[in-house]
Amino acid sequence: MNRIILPLLFLAFIVGGVSEKTNAQCKQQVVYQCATNIDKAIYLRDFNTKLRKGKKGHGSGTKWAVVLNKGTHYRFTLCTQGGFESNVILTLFDAKHPEDRKPYQVTKYTGNRKTSNRFDFICNKSGTYYLSIRFKPGKESKKSCAVGILSFVGKNK
Asked: I need a labelling partner for 109 at 20 to 30 A (CA). Which of 56, 86, 135, 137 fits?
């Protein structure tokens, strides 16, 4: 009996490790792709998320808090695995729950590699803002990963 259980446990360990490595590679590749698409802005931070279809058709996503400074011009860029560009959105808002307030900005997929799925934001008030990456309503898919990049464009005078 032990001769069967030990090889099965070993196999399960190897398969689990490979799937985690594959997911990590996905994120590394998407981060690199996204970070090289910010033009002359300076990379500040990336936001990684795994996207899965949730219960009752509601897609999963992740929300982060980020501190932004008044008078600073920021660029937010969203990148996804191939084929999911039009299904995922990055939203910037100032309430803990996006449904409580209208968002400041939401990415739009235009099909243009240079300007698609990104927006510039000039901060008018220093404070904590929230960033969300999730599937668009009705566009949920089985599984994907997405990366948001926060970059510094410049200071407004």
From this structure: 56
